Request: fold
Amino acid sequence: MNAQDMSAVEACIQNYFEALYTGNTELLMGSVFHPNAHLYAADMGNGFVDWPMDEFRKVIESRPSPKASGADRRERIVSMDEAGPDTVMVKVEVLVGTREFVDYLSVLRLDGEWKIISKTCVIIKDHAEAAA
Reply:
């Protein structure tokens, strides 16, 4: 994979971070996630999660954005593993409101654009619970 492709994957992930922080679902669903993408988690408080993008959009739209709430912004790309010329696995850490997540993002080049096709996440710390 060339430097231009890696930059394009990084741009997708930076848009992901921006959309999560600002609550911009148009950016999230238009530029970041493939329409057929899914979000998976073993337990987000209600057991196993398997959300299509429409469900994830509703969750994002139903809450104030971290930016609107005045929450800190913290995110980083931990690793990017090229699995093939059109496939990259990206591990990120991101603070969304009071929750710290580790996300594993499967990013594919489809029709010339890099999009997240799968997100598997885990909450590693909830600062609201820690403060209680």
